[in-house]
């Protein structure tokens, strides 16, 4: 293990490797990523992998539009193979008048930012998704450039590009402490040795709070268990990713034919448990068969759980922790970290290297929670 680095990134999920790549792309040297397991072992490898640009807050539209365009060109940008970006679109299903009113406002905003989302009638939605019981919805929206991609292929693509640019990755390496002298980071301790450094990037996902405690910083974040499942394979009948905020559902049909689906369940533990919730399959089955009744005959193959790292306004935090010079954090994605990864990498590289912002990350600092300038996002599950 190296005994010194210019920048140490803690966390080898999609965010950590994306940050590492962009740092090197913009001129950083001697960057190390530390991962306690294998790359993508945390929330990245357990997520639904959706990529959408349909939001109700302009900052989220801008950040995800940047990310989507990056993913469209990932093979060329990262010098990798196909990351399996399936741009079958995202269909958002609307079932209440209040939601419809908000959705119309969202579309105006999205269109003004170059996102070509459209409002669909129930009939039009049913023509695109024949499995859908259109009597359960008032309308839908659709954006053809949204979709989903492979979490593991994308993470590996970033990691390989990072290593080609001279970065170093240590897997199966536990961070045990962070040294701070006179209010500045000086070293990261691991179970394999100590790395001297003046810059530490906390990209630890659901464990971000635990890493922050190592420098006596308290983040206004918490981690929450979320469940997901996959069914047996069926001939492909669903092209777009489906989501409904009011009906509490997100779902895709994977290239292999299985349906991957999830919903938000009440009373989930706010700690680091990722054990399966025995109530989740029943609640998920009721939710999905209410909307797509023909899927009621499918058998569930497997369920699993991962951590959403939640912020008070359900938007990410990109900042240097004020109490400790050189300690940066990118966390609090609230379930959207995978789709934000390229924007996260770009933003944190600009922040750490002191570059002029090309994305509105200045609105996503920690100070917004004390000033009350929260990012109010109406369009989340």
Short description:
The protein has 381 residues and is α/β, with parallel strands linked by helices. The chain is built from 10 helices and 19 strands.
Structural notes for this entry:
By secondary structure, this protein is an alpha/beta fold. The chain is built from 10 helices and 19 strands. The chain has helices at 14-25, 58-72, 74-78, 97-112, 122-128, 151-164, 208-213, 280-291, 337-353, 368-371; strands at 7-10, 31-34, 50-51, 90-94, 118-120, 139-143, 147-148, 168-170, 175-181, 184-190, 193-196, 200-202, 222-233, 241-244, 249-253, 258-262, 300-310, 317-320, 327-331. The strands form 4 sheets. Strands 5-6-4-14-15-16-13-17 form an 8-stranded mixed β-sheet, with helices on both faces. Strands 8-2-1-12-19-18 form a 6-stranded mixed β-sheet. Strands 9-10-11 form a 3-stranded antiparallel β-sheet, with no helix packed on it. Helix 2 (58-72) packs across helix 9 (337-353). It starts with 6 loop residues before the first strand and ends in a 10-residue tail after the last helix.
């Amino acid at each position: 293990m190296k005994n010194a680095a210019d920048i140490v990134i803690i966390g080898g999920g999609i965010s950590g490797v994306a940050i590492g790549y962009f740092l090197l792309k913009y001129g950083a040297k001697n960057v190390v990523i530390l991962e306690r397991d294998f790359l993508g072992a945390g929330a990245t490898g357990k997520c639904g992998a959706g990529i959408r640009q349909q939001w109700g807050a302009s900052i989220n539209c801008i950040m995800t539009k940047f990310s989507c365009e990056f993913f469209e060109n990932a093979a060329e940008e990262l010098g990798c193979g196909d990351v399996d970006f399936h741009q079958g679109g995202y269909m958002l299903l609307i079932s209440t008048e209040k939601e419809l009113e908000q959705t119309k406002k969202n579309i105006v905003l999205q269109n003004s930012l170059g996102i070509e989302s459209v409002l669909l009638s129930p009939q039009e939605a049913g023509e695109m998704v024949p499995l859908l019981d259109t009597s359960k919805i008032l309308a839908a929206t659709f954006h053809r450039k949204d979709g989903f991609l492979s979490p593991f292929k994308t993470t590996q693509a970033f990691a390989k590009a990072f290593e080609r640019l001279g970065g170093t990755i240590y897997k199966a390496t536990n961070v045990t402490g962070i040294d701070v002298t006179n209010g500045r980071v000086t070293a990261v301790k691991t179970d394999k040795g100590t790395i001297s450094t003046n810059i530490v990037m906390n990209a630890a996902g659901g464990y971000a709070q635990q890493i922050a405690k190592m420098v006596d910083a308290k983040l206004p974040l918490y981690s929450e268990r979320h469940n997901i499942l996959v069914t047996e394979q069926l001939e492909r009948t669903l092209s777009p990713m489906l989501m409904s905020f009011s009906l509490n559902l997100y779902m895709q049909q994977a290239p292999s034919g299985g349906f991957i689906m999830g919903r938000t369940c009440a009373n989930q533990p706010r700690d680091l448990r990722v054990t399966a919730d025995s109530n989740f399959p029943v609640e998920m089955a009721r939710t999905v068969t209410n909307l797509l009744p023909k899927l009621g005959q499918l058998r569930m193959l497997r369920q699993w759980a991962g951590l959403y790292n939640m912020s008070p306004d359900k938007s990410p935090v990109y900042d240097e922790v004020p109490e400790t010079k050189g300690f940066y954090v990118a966390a609090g994605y609230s379930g959207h970290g995978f789709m934000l990864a390229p924007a996260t990498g770009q933003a944190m590289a600009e922040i750490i290297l002191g570059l002029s912002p090309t994305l509105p990350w200045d609105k996503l600092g920690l100070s917004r929670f004390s000033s009350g300038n929260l990012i109010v996002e109406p369009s989340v599950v």
